[in-house]
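Entry 14. Ran structure prediction on the chain below.
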Amino acid sequence: MAFGGKQVHSLAMAGGSAFPPQVRESLPEPGQFFDLLKQKAGFTTDFGSPDVKLYRYEVRKWKEA
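Output, structure tokens:
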């Protein structure tokens, strides 16, 4: 079976904070995505630290015909 679909990327924050790519794509500014990601991880939106780890992951997105 062949899998099609479009490859899309998103980010996850160490500790399990992640959103599917649809959330990232729905926001007009990248900063809004990071603010939501930080809030989901339990941080304030102005939180910043060189020790925070971000992970990029890839998913395949497709629609049924």
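The radius of gyration is 14 Å. Will compare against last week's run tomorrow.
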